[in-house]
Hints:
Blueprint: H1 14-28, H2 33-40, H3 44-51, H4 59-69, E1 95-97, E2 106-116, E3 119-129, E4 143-150, E5 153-157, E6 160-164, E7 169-173, E8 178-183, E9 187-197
Antiparallel strand pairs: 1-2, 2-3, 3-9, 4-7, 4-9, 5-6, 5-8
Helix pairs in contact: 1-3, 2-4
Amino acid sequence: MHADYSDGFRKKPLEISIGEEVxxxxxxxxxxxxxxxxxxxxxxxxxxxxxxxxxxxxxxTLNSLAEAVGIPVANFFAAxxxxxxxxxxxxxxxxxxxxxxxxxxxxxxxxxxxxxxxxLFESFLIALEKxxxxxxxFQHVGIEFIHVTKGKMSYRCGDRVYELGPGDSLTFETDAPxxxxxxxxxxxxxxxxIARPRNGHSAA
Length: 204
């Protein structure tokens, strides 16, 4: 029988809630099971069982996983307490993450993350620098907002190309192919905010 936890009155079992948080942290960090195992010292089989909610992981094991992805271990218990989720990052801080675009001269720093009612909301500071190796186009589930804070670039969204400079913004559904196709400036910096289903594909 399929269990439905979406009605807001039935709480998920602790193991499932923690497992979902572990998997979300791993995928947000761009790590495979094997890579997380190598960084944390926890076996791939154990991580897989934790993510599926099949075992009750010890605090020491969860702490090893949290350190490997660079977050407080308390984040794994966020869905088990009655509180509003808040993400606060001071100027200059944030977690550097690896995304597919990182291979094209992009660097990503996550500066916010909140998950609520099945929606994952993430914000990034992205820096693009010449030369970029290739023209990456991304497609994933969700809605994205980008705001240019420095530099100029040509950005494709669907079948249109937009010339963007400081202060310009775009908001779009991310199932359309999108991404920078050329940089006018040597360096471009943008703020990106992405909202997607919690179990949707990781955004790029």
